[in-house]
Amino acid sequence: SMIVFFVLGIFIVIFSPKEYKSEITLVVETSASGSGMSGLLQQFGGLAGINLNNTTNKEALVPDLYPEVIKSTPFLLEIMKQKVIESKYDSTITIAQYIDRYTRPSLASSISKYTIGLPGKIMEWIRGKNDHFSKKIPVLASDSAISLSVEPIIITKEESDIIEAISECINTEQDFKKSNKFIIRVEMQDPLVVAQVTSSVVKNLTKYIIEYRTKKAKTDLNFVEKSTFQAESKYLEAQQKLAVYKDRNKNVILSSVQVEEEKLQSEFDLAFSVYSALAKQLEQAKIKVQEETPVFNVMDPAQVPLKKSKPKTISILFTMFFLGGVIGVLIIFGKESYKKLKEL
Known about the structure:
- By secondary structure, the protein is of the alpha+beta class.
- Helix content is 60%, strand content 10%.
- The chain has twelve helices and six strands.
């Protein structure tokens, strides 16, 4: 029994595809840590008329949700489109093409596919492909890593399988309570591809989080910029009218002239006060965007692995050898028990 299971372990090691692991360690700045911008400005008294005390809003997208973002369908659809260089033929292809063309299924999945999953495969072949799910439509309308719209996503069966395969390759580990570390691990069958995919996951994640965190602040900034431009135009127009009127009536002492001048002066003062207030809000909005932009420090960048991570030869052989011994002992005791029961 031990010999049989040991040979079976060798068979598993030989026919299991090699996998390589790459990981990136990020140090994430959380909202609780505060912003250096507001601290620096408050240390030097801030800017005149600008309130810096309302920049510590409660964050909606907490770091604990980052793994959910990575496993989401829109995020993985964007990862599928990223291009990588595979090492076997030194060709540039998308990650979806690499998964479809160059990834070997594991031994366990192959056995399951043609044993337990065989009836499903036969039914799928009989029914044929569903035309509805074969149609492709644009999924992401924006350039962001994940579209924030609520439009439904329609994907093909092939895309669904690739998304599931990519999701199984990506694992995360987080320790935000002690060190604010967030580790992203990717395992694939090509050492060059796995390093590139790990970098792509990190780039898309940071891009999405920055966009998510700064979206409201940027919307406010655009609104304040437009309002400030309009107020500045009105202020300059009122200033020009007042200056021209004063030049034309420099030596005139009529009451009507003084009343009109006071009216123009009031319009100028009002336009200036509005412009001045909006200019302060514009500076505050710019600081708010900087405050809301998270900082991601890469402590350990992705590296092309030199050694395979799977299959673990020693572990598999030892486990199979031990399992063979246990089953052999159970068979011996089973025979003895069966003999005793038969004698009774």
